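hiii so um. not sure if this is the right channel but i have a protein structure encoded as tokens and i wanna go backwards to a sequence. like what aa goes where. can anyone help
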């Protein structure tokens, strides 16, 4: 579904993605892990159009989307969440859902879809509350629901488990699994290794902007180069 081919991005003298190549196959829950500063979020920002690559290609279902604006990439079928949640605090929860929709013609259908998603993540009772009044965990759930309003092909999740309590972690895992069963492909960044290793297959590891390993959880856990990237020699 997604191919990243020889992707390069530098900020001054710092190379964030260094001829990075990887793929995400349709129907998978693929993990992207690596030490802090390894280039994970920069890679997501390039895939979603927030940052233009300096070189290389990003291909979604055979179409080169590298360098397109975020709204065109979203319309191509890519949605994402952020490490630090980005909701519109002065809009209601329902308005946050509606504003993300591409369907401008059928307001009733959009509201129905939005309510279904809010019910799915368990915050439908907050639909008329301002998003700014939600707890951190509820904002995470809102952002997850909003990412699915346009029925995307691929959802990029940037640290969905960061800072949430164990109960919400379990809910998020269940939500991801259910959406995956419905045909959504996920590409997930997170540092919660226990969850990542049980939820995701395959696991891709990057360090200094380069892919250093790819495989099953067991293969990654036993990879010496991965251990060295995290802990040093």
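sure thing!! here u go:
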């Amino acid at each position: 579904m997604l191919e990243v081919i020889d992707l390069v991005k530098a900020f001054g003298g710092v190379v964030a993605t260094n001829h990075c190549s990887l793929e995400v196959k349709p129907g998978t829950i693929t993990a992207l892990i690596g030490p802090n500063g390894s280039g994970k979020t920069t890679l997501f920002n390039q895939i979603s159009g927030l940052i233009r690559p300096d070189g290389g290609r990003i291909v979604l279902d055979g179409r080169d989307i590298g360098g397109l604006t975020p709204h065109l990439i979203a319309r191509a079928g890519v949605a994402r969440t952020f490490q630090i949640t980005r909701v519109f605090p002065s809009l209601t929860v329902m308005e946050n859902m509606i504003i993300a929709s591409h369907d401008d013609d059928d307001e009733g259908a959009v509201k129905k879809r939005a309510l279904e998603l809010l019910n799915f993540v368990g915050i439908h009772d907050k639909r008329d509350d301002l998003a700014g009044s939600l707890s951190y965990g509820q904002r995470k759930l809102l952002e997850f629901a909003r990412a699915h309003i346009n029925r995307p092909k691929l959802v990029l999740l940037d640290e969905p488990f960061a800072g949430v309590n164990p109960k919400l972690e379990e809910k998020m895992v269940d939500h991801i699994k259910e959406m995956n069963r419905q045909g959504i492909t996920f590409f997930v960044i997170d540092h919660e290794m226990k969850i990542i290793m049980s939820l995701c297959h395959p696991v891709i590891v990057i360090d200094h902007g380069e892919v250093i390993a790819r495989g099953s959880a067991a293969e990654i856990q036993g990879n010496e180069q991965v251990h060295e990237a995290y802990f040093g020699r």
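oh and The radius of gyration is 18 Å.
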